[in-house]
Amino acid sequence: MKVPKASTISVLVLVGTVLAALLYLLGSLAVSASSGGKAAVSAAAAAAKQGPASVYDKPLPIDDFTLTNQRGEKFQFSSTKGKLVLMSFLFTHCGDVCPFSAIKMKRALDQMGVDAKDVVLVAIDTDPERDSTEVMAAYSRDLGLYDSWHFVSGDLKQMTKVYKNLGITVIKTDEEEIMETSKNAQELGITLPQKDQKDSPLFGLTDEQVLSGGEVAKKFSGGYQIAHSAPFWIIDRKGNLRVSLDVSATPAQIVENLKSYLTTD
Prior knowledge:
Number of domains: 1
Largest sheet: 6 strands, mixed
CATH topology: Glutaredoxin
Number of helices: 8
Order of helices and strands: HHEEEEHEHEHEHHEEEH
Strand order of the largest sheet: 1-10-9-4-5-6
Helix content: 40-55%
Radius of gyration: 18 Å
């Protein structure tokens, strides 16, 4: 899988999306900290609309790669052949979507029941400069995923190659750059996408899960941010990408799509 060179406008759109998502989530978590906040977070999550799933007409093979997981073990993607893979893209210093995506992966695996043995959770790191094995291990433990997934990373050269092969956009930025991007977009007459309730990463999560994810974000976030593609990918037993779901997908929707490939050759 090869990724085309990102245009200036696409970069503006991607960063704008991250800015809007960050502001949306910070607003939600700020409400949760106030009196009656738990109910407000619940209402926000319940009001969200489920996002679409993109099913690929033709299976797209995933290039093999070898990286290191949170336990310091080498992980080779081809070792998952024969099982389904639920893949996501995240980083530990993420202040918005990432911890909630991780919680959704965990909930989806739990809801697979006896079929969980046929599913491998893989999270591709998007911040190799800060996410050491020790940091990824601590993050995984706080999410209850230390023994349940492969949160994998490598050096910058390795990861750049992986992003390119997977067609994933990863852009390092900071708050000032994001604000400047927004300002430049306005001056150029470009309307950046706005995150609203139908795009909420909180959709499908309980009050406790939302608050738990917020605590993880509060503990690990800070410094520069990473604007990156953030889908959930479902990869079949032969290592082919079959479905991409957006961040608002619920654990139940993820499970439904996973189960549709359990018996697929």
